[in-house]
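Objective 1.3, modelling of assemblies. Example input:
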Amino acid sequence: MKRRTFLKGAATIPVAGALLSSSSVFSPKAATAKAGKAASGASGTGKVPEFAEHFLTSDMNGLGPDGKPTGQKATFSGVSKADAMADSASSKMKLTKEEQAILDGKEGEEKAKLMKILVKFGETFGATKLVELGGAPHSNLYIGAPYMNSMIEMLKQCADAGLKSYAPYTVNPRPYDVYNVQNNPKDMELIYEGYPLQAKLDWVHSRLGAPDLNFRSCACYVKEIGNAPKPGTYVAWCESSAVNYGNSVLGIRTNRYGAGMEMICAMLGKAPLFGLMTDEGRQATWLVDVKTSKVPDWGALGTAIGRKVVEDIPYIAGLDKYFEGGKVTPDNMHLLKAMGSATAAAGAVGLYHVEGVTPEPKEKKRKLLAKGYKTYVYDDKEQKRVIDTFKNLWPEKGGDPTAAFIGCPHNTYFEVVKWGKLVIEALDKAGKKKAAIPVYMFMANKVRERLLEEETELAGKMKRAGMSYTNMCAVSYSGMKGFSERVRGITNSAKTRNYSSIRYFPDEILVNTIVTGKIKA
Ligand code: F3S
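Predicted structure (tokens):
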């Protein structure tokens, strides 16, 4: 089974199928859930249904230096159970009286169905109980395409029954932008025909407790969005890069959910306790020793780690010198965002520890390494080897680039200002006012608002130079039909590179290319 097929199966079938057949704004308990009429609910039978077997096995393999599979497989839960079989990995869940009552329909038919799905899901992954969630959820249900209809309809049924998330929540960026990028008539056709359910999806999110579209971002944890729960908080987040950053840098506790499951957890305010939510599940099984002579290429490093550990947890040493005083700040958080998102894209890493920097190794140090851990050394030679595997996927390999894509995951405020200054200064130096190719800067509207308020002059120069501020998802946009045939893109995102034909380059090469229109690698 291909990765996409697996994900689609894991994410949508159990959820939608089960229901359809019958200071921040992100403060907890800010929303309520209403009970509907009672109905009979049934607890799990203890036997894992056929569809759920794909939760535990997949064909996503780690790659060795020769580019061949190492035999290590991903389960996409963020919990390595390579070669585990569904029956042996599953368990029976013990419910509280309140949870059993929900399952029995005392709080309405819809909640009973949600609970039935959640219990089955937890049992599949070996959980024995549910825990209360805190902070705020994050959802990656953001695509209003026809294949999402059953999921969107399920959410609508929940909203119609008066259910809501236990707290206002954040949602991933939309897959397109009809205002800030150059869409030709063909693009508009693809947008409106490809995403006919977008308004329905946006609306149901609004009814379930998401704030307006200005808060849409995959980098939900930046200050301008504000979804950054306290360390140790149990949450149910969905979006590989956000889960990865949240678990690792914020110290929250979430598994990697398939799209839709996070909304079920949000509406119940509960999640099954297993995997990355447990101390045991947060132990590292790899020591990654970074020994590059200069600052590593963060995207290449993340890609290398993802390919090597697949979905295991790496404990990364040798990076603390790049974080003054071991602190993650608004000025350096993007380094971890870039590295981490690449580990989650090239592999399925849901949590990493950075020695001397992220919260858990600061407290527990190398006690976080599990017995028998493996070691991976990342030095200059290894970095070059990894970068050399990044193939040129443009159909016209020798052509000049036609657009730059900066910011996947979404840019932080610091990054936007940094890129603005880099490009404007380089243009000034070259005696130019306009970039040679359009530059799409991906960010939440809230981040753009701050830029316009605090860096008005720079923002104006950037716009006049051909830099657009867009709040859509870079990868979804580049996934539009025909995109790779007509756009020769360049990017600073190893995640975008992983999922598209867009080519990845270090910042200095990108800036030069943006100014000259030619790649001088
Ligand atoms: Fe964000 Fe889309 Fe990249 S959701 S992480 S911009 S793939």
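Residues 46 and 92 are 6 Å apart (CA to CA).
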